[in-house]
Amino acid sequence: MEQLQKRLLKLKIKLMWELWLKIFLKFVIVGTAISVIYVLISKWKYLFDDNIFFIIIVLAVLFCSFIVTYLKRITWKKTAQIADKLGYKERFITALELLEQKREYTKIEKLVIEDALQKAQQQDISKKYKLTISKKEIQILAVLFVALFGTNIITTPQQKQAEQYAAAQLKKIEQVKSDINKEQEIKEDALKAFNKEMNTLTKNLKKAQTVEESKRIVEQAQQAVKALEKENMSEDLKKVSEKLSQNEKTKELANALETGDTKAIRTQMDTLLSEMEELPQEVLEKIAQALEDIGEVNDEELAELLKNLSQQLSSGNMAQAITQGQALKGKLASLANENTDFIQNMENLNQALAENASSKTEQSGQSGQQGDGQGQGQGEGEQSGSGQGGQGQGSGEGMNSGQGRGNGHQETEKIYTRKAENMAGYQTQLQGQQNEQGQTNITREQTIGERGQSLPYEQVYQSYRNDALKDIENSDVPYGMRELVSEYFSTLEQ
Questions:
Q1: Under a CB-based contact definition with an 8 Å cutoff, are residues 19 and 83 in contact?
Q2: Using an 8 Å Cβ cutoff, are 434 and 407 in contact?
Q3: Is 80 exposed, middle or buried (0-12, 13-18, 19+ CB in 10 A)?
Q4: What's the N-to-C CA distance of the chain in angstroms?
Q5: What is the dihedral angle through the alpha carbons of 262, 265, 271, 275, rounded to the nearest 10 degrees?
Q6: C-alpha pair distances (Å), 29 with each of 32, 58, 60, 149
Q7: CA distance 43 to 328
Q8: Quick one: pLDDT at residue 461?
Q9: I need a labelling partner for 409 at 20 to 30 A (CA). Which of 60, 330, 344, 452 fits?
């Protein structure tokens, strides 16, 4: 069993590859058709990110093709049947079925198995089998690819609006990029990160098909710009802001520190210091604890000021606490001022993007209302025209009938002659029960092989016998097999 499978393994692998290729081609056709529909719809309405969609399509095609191939995988029996069709006259399927029985074999059966193994060893059977791919499916796929390319180059009114929207945004982006690149005090890392985000925004805006998609891209860019602001804040300010945001009395100061607004920092610090004189000791101790929880910071002066203010608040020495608070206010404002130009440019960019988005939304909304009104009027006109000239009438009839013999008629048994060219044909079966009129129900099913002429058994038998004996004489068939065939036909004569 293992020896035969080993010699048929290459053919089985080739058949599996062919099966996967055919299934994969079918799923590619389906995926491409879905892509064409998606591209057409996205020309008028934004659905979701194009890259994500096409990644999903590719993964789905691969996954489904592998799963279906596994479910329809080629068996050893199927491999043997296909191998026999390459000119081996059912050697392999016969040997395989015998080997599966795992019993003591007769002398003739051993000869059958040995013959199959010998034939499989003489030649690489897989080389005789040629892969076949449906030309029709290739043509369909080619048409779909042309359609996909064609839909991509179609320009719609929505796309023109998106281009106008993108042009307005890109103009403002270029202005801000120019201003930021002129700044001498901006860190190199911050500048690289900003240029990278802006290049991505520019690229995506140029690819957008609708204003809705462009707005989504701008919103993502605004989030990225906001993140750049936070990344370029002083690490010490981030840490102080994070801890102070957890206390109700220092939350507003934490918000000011997060934005890096020096004016807001000074204002919130002054407000906090003025309120401290009237706050109960319990609240002051919570503020002191929040300052202590900040922990280590990189700036030594800031660390010292935070420590001193925490100690003075804990001890209740308000005069010293206010003095330390004023010094801390100046230090926090100084740290916030380090990247104030960069942060301000980021704020300006975000504000400009928001203004352009609002302006374009109003314009597209007005345009959309006008378009809807025109479309409705045109639609009514078309309906009226088609109603006057679109009448037609048709009818069709059909009838089937069949008659057959009733009871009491019997002829010599007949069988069909051998005629299985092209492996196509029909087999007719009679089903049902005869009635008084002798009618029966007839069904016709397509099967492997084509019926030959129906002749008496004796006549067909002689034809089969002569052909079989002639074939084994002209073929490389073991002597034992010839004896087996001869004995088989002898038993049929009895």
A1: no
A2: yes
A3: buried
A4: 36
A5: -150
A6: 5, 12, 12, 15
A7: 57
A8: 66
A9: 452
CA-closest candidate to residue 132, choices 179, 85, 173, 75: 85
CA distance 359 to 363: 7
**Residue of 221, 171, 165 whose CA lies nearest to 357:** 165
Checking if the pLDDT of 275 tops 90, the result is: no
Identity of residue 428: T
**Separation between Cα atoms, residue 1 and residue 301, nearest integer Å:** 85
**pLDDT, tens digit, 9 for 90 and up, residues 224-259:** 777 766 666 667 777 788 878 877 778 888 888 777
The Cα–Cα gap between 349 and 355 comes to 10
pTM of the full structure: 0.40
CB atoms within 10 A of CB 87: 11
What mean pLDDT value characterizes the chain? 72
Q: Within its chain, how far is the Cα of 237 from the centroid?
A: 44
Domain ranges of the chain: 2-152, 157-231+343-363, 235-338, 414-493
